[in-house]
Amino acid sequence: MASNVNPTVRRRRLGQELRKLRELKGMTAEEVADRLLVSQSKISRLENGRRSISQRDVRDLCGVYEVEDQRVVDSLMEMARDSRQQGWWHTFGDIPYSVYIGLETDAQSLRVYEPQLVTGLLQTRAYAEALVRGALPETSTAEIDKRVRVRMRRQERVTDANNPLRLWVVLDEAALHRVVGSKLIMREQLEHLIELSNLPHVTVQVLPFEVGAHPGLNGQYAILEFADAADSSVVYLEGVTSDLYLEKAPDVQKYAVMYEHLRAQALPVERSQQFIQDAAKRFAQ
Description:
Blueprint: H1 7-25, H2 29-36, H3 40-47, H4 55-64, H5 70-83, H6 98-106, E1 109-114, H7 125-135, H8 141-154, H9 156-159, E2 166-172, H10 174-177, H11 183-197, E3 202-207, E4 221-225, E5 234-237, E6 244-246, H12 249-265, H13 269-283
Parallel strand pairs: 1-2, 2-3
Antiparallel strand pairs: 1-4, 4-5, 5-6
C-alpha cells in the first residue's frame, strides 16, 4: 500500500525538475558541478533520483539556474523535504534494493519476465525463505528473515483491495521445474501461483521450453509504470552487487517491445494455468 509521501518517487520527480531547469539554462552537468565545486557524478545522481536531495542542494542549484519565481523554489524545497522522509521499508533497516521497493510501492502496473524462479510478489513464505537461503548461502538467519518479511510486506500491493498493483508475469517453464526447498514447498508454491493468477489484476503466462530462442534469453527484467504522467516508466534489471534502472524512452520502448514478443510466444492464460496445475501434480507424487 503506497504511502502518501513516497521518498523514492519524490526524489525522481525532483530530479526530473532539476534536470529541466539545467537544460533550460543550457548548462551541462559538468558546468554545474564546476560552479558548485562538487563532482559531476553528484549532479547526475541528484537528477536521476538515486541520491537524497537536501534543501541546501535545491537552494544552490536554483541559484545557479537563476530561478526567479519563488513559488518554484518553494515547491522544489518542499519536494526535497518530502524526499528525505522514510518509506515503510526503512523500518527494516538497510535493504540493498530499497530504490526498487520505493518504485514498486508507487507503481500502477508491473510487467515481469522471470527465467528461473517464481517472481517475488507471488512467492509463498516457505519458497521465499528457501530461495534466499539457497541463493545467499553465507547470509545470517536474521538477514534471511528480514528479507523474507520485506518480501511478504511488498506482496500487500497484490492483494490490496483499494489500490491493487496491475501485475503481468511471463514465467519461463524452468521456474516450474526447479525444486526450491522441497517438493512439498514447490507444490504449495505452484498452487499459490494458480490462486493468485485468478485475481482480475494478475496475469500469469508460462513460456514453455518448446518455444526455443526468445527475446528474454538475456535474463530477468521488470517494467514499472506509474499513474502520474510526470513519472516516466522504468526498466529494472537486477544484479548481484548492483542494480540497473533504465528510464530513457528508447530503452524502455525496446524492453516493452521485447515483452510483447514474450507475451505472444507464451501460452495463453488458461493453458498456462493448466500447465502449472500439471506441474504441481508432479510434485505431489
